[in-house]
Amino acid sequence: MLPACAETGVIGALTGVIGTLMAMEAIKVLTGAGEPLIGRLLLYDALAARFDTIRYRRK
Fold this sequence. Notes:
The chain is an alpha+beta fold. About 40% of the residues lie in helices and about 20% in strands.
Protein backbone atom coordinates (compact mmCIF):
# COMPACT_ATOMS: atom_id res chain seq x y z
CA MET A 1 0.00 0.00 0.00
CA LEU A 2 1.16 3.48 -0.81
CA PRO A 3 0.88 6.22 1.80
CA ALA A 4 -1.51 9.10 1.12
CA CYS A 5 -0.24 12.52 0.05
CA ALA A 6 -1.25 13.90 3.44
CA GLU A 7 1.22 11.50 5.06
CA THR A 8 4.16 11.84 2.68
CA GLY A 9 3.64 15.39 1.38
CA VAL A 10 3.47 16.80 -2.12
CA ILE A 11 6.14 18.89 -3.78
CA GLY A 12 4.29 22.22 -3.84
CA ALA A 13 6.61 23.92 -6.31
CA LEU A 14 6.08 21.16 -8.86
CA THR A 15 2.31 21.41 -8.70
CA GLY A 16 2.60 25.19 -8.99
CA VAL A 17 4.72 24.98 -12.15
CA ILE A 18 2.44 22.44 -13.84
CA GLY A 19 -0.73 24.29 -12.80
CA THR A 20 0.62 27.56 -14.17
CA LEU A 21 1.54 25.92 -17.47
CA MET A 22 -1.92 24.36 -17.77
CA ALA A 23 -3.62 27.68 -17.05
CA MET A 24 -1.48 29.43 -19.68
CA GLU A 25 -2.36 26.79 -22.28
CA ALA A 26 -6.07 27.29 -21.56
CA ILE A 27 -5.67 31.07 -21.95
CA LYS A 28 -3.86 30.61 -25.28
CA VAL A 29 -6.61 28.36 -26.63
CA LEU A 30 -9.45 30.61 -25.44
CA THR A 31 -7.93 33.87 -26.67
CA GLY A 32 -6.13 32.63 -29.77
CA ALA A 33 -2.92 34.29 -28.55
CA GLY A 34 0.41 32.57 -29.00
CA GLU A 35 0.95 29.00 -30.12
CA PRO A 36 -0.69 26.33 -27.91
CA LEU A 37 0.87 22.91 -27.45
CA ILE A 38 -1.60 21.21 -29.80
CA GLY A 39 0.16 18.23 -31.38
CA ARG A 40 3.05 18.49 -28.93
CA LEU A 41 3.76 17.05 -25.51
CA LEU A 42 5.66 19.15 -22.97
CA LEU A 43 7.87 17.13 -20.64
CA TYR A 44 9.13 18.69 -17.41
CA ASP A 45 12.01 17.27 -15.40
CA ALA A 46 11.70 18.97 -12.01
CA LEU A 47 14.99 17.61 -10.67
CA ALA A 48 16.99 19.04 -13.58
CA ALA A 49 14.64 22.03 -14.10
CA ARG A 50 14.47 21.16 -17.80
CA PHE A 51 11.67 21.28 -20.36
CA ASP A 52 11.53 19.11 -23.49
CA THR A 53 8.89 19.03 -26.21
CA ILE A 54 8.06 16.12 -28.47
CA ARG A 55 5.65 16.08 -31.42
CA TYR A 56 2.95 13.46 -31.94
CA ARG A 57 0.31 12.71 -34.53
CA ARG A 58 -3.22 11.53 -33.96
CA LYS A 59 -4.30 8.31 -35.59
